[in-house]
Write a structure and sequence with these properties.
This protein has about 120 residues and is mainly alpha-helical. The chain has 4 helices and 2 strands; from the N terminus they run αβαβαα. The relative contact order is 0.16.
Length: about 120
C-alpha cells in the first residue's frame, strides 16, 4: 500500500526552495527546476496521485522556470545506468545534451540575456 500524502514534504519544499528563490528576487538570476530521470526502470504512473505540486506553485514566481516534467523520461532505461541510481557515460552524455537544449530553450543561447539589456 502507498502511504497517504500528508503535505509535509511539499511544505518543506515551499519553505526551503522559497527561501532560495527569495534570495535571488532582486537579481536577474533564473531558478530552473528539472525533474530527473528516476532510474533504469520507469515507475508506473499510477502509483502516486498527487493532490498538488509545490514546484508548480513556486514556478509562478518571477524568474522561476520549469523544464517540462517528462523531458528526461527517455533516460529511464537500463542501458543508460551503471547501477540502480547513477547514469553511465552514455546516459550522462545524453542527460547533458538534453538539459543544455532545454535550458537554452528556456533562457536563450549564451549571452542572450545580456544582449537584451
Amino acid at each position: 500500500p502507498v502511504a497517504p500524502q500528508t503535505g509535509r514534504y511539499a511544505a518543506l519544499r515551499r519553505k526551503w526552495f522559497g527561501k532560495i528563490i527569495d534570495a535571488y528576487r532582486d537579481s536577474p538570476t533564473k531558478i530552473i527546476f528539472v525533474r530527473l530521470a528516476r532510474g533504469p526502470i520507469p515507475r508506473p504512473g499510477n502509483l502516486v496521485h498527487k493532490k498538488s505540486s509545490s514546484i508548480r506553485e513556486l514556478a509562478r514566481r518571477p524568474n522561476v522556470l520549469l523544464v517540462p516534467e517528462h523531458t528526461l523520461d527517455s533516460l529511464e532505461h537500463p542501458e543508460f545506468y551503471k547501477d540502480g541510481m547513477h547514469l553511465n557515460a552514455e546516459g550522462m552524455t545524453r542527460f547533458s545534451e538534453m538539459l543544455a537544449r532545454e535550458v537554452s530553450a528556456l533562457v536563450g543561447p549564451p549571452g542572450a540575456q545580456e544582449a537584451g539589456k
